[in-house]
Design brief:
Layout: E1 6-14, E2 17-19, E3 22-30, E4 32-35, E5 40-52, E6 55-68, E7 73-79, E8 82-85, E9 90-96
Parallel strand pairs: 1-3, 2-4, 3-5, 4-5, 5-6, 6-7, 6-8, 7-9
């Protein structure tokens, strides 16, 4: 999707999808979504892999991984199994990842289990 293109609505399909323009709405791709350095996406993005070098406002959800690259910005929520955030990138929001505990460990203690703190 070139720099001069603006899409309002839903984009679905099989990737890869490279966004260089603007998207407002929803992106759902089987495969990879790349948000280019000058791209602006205000949408929920769902894909196997998402690489952000531009700006995303909304939820970025990946079944495999999210790469927040140098200059990339996400304002919202990243939800994935694995994330790579470059030191020159910015996340303003939440990072949601599954917690995998070693065998035999049931979970973090609650405040009542650890003396109240």
């Amino acid at each position: 999707m070139s720099a001069g293109v603006r899409v309002s609505g839903t984009i679905t399909g099989k990737g890869p999808l490279a966004v260089a323009g603007r998207v407002d709405g929803h992106v759902a791709v089987e495969g990879e979504v790349q948000v280019g350095p000058r791209a602006r996406v205000e949408a929920e993005v769902n894909a196997d892999l998402v690489a952000v070098a531009g700006f995303v406002k909304g939820t970025v959800k990946a079944t495999t991984a999210v790469a927040l690259m140098a200059g990339g910005q996400v304002e919202g929520t990243i939800d994935c199994k694995r994330v790579d955030i470059d030191p020159q990138a910015r996340l303003k929001g939440r990072l949601v990842m599954p917690l995998t505990l070693p065998r035999g460990i049931k979970g973090a203690p609650t405040s009542s289990d650890n003396g109240g703190w």
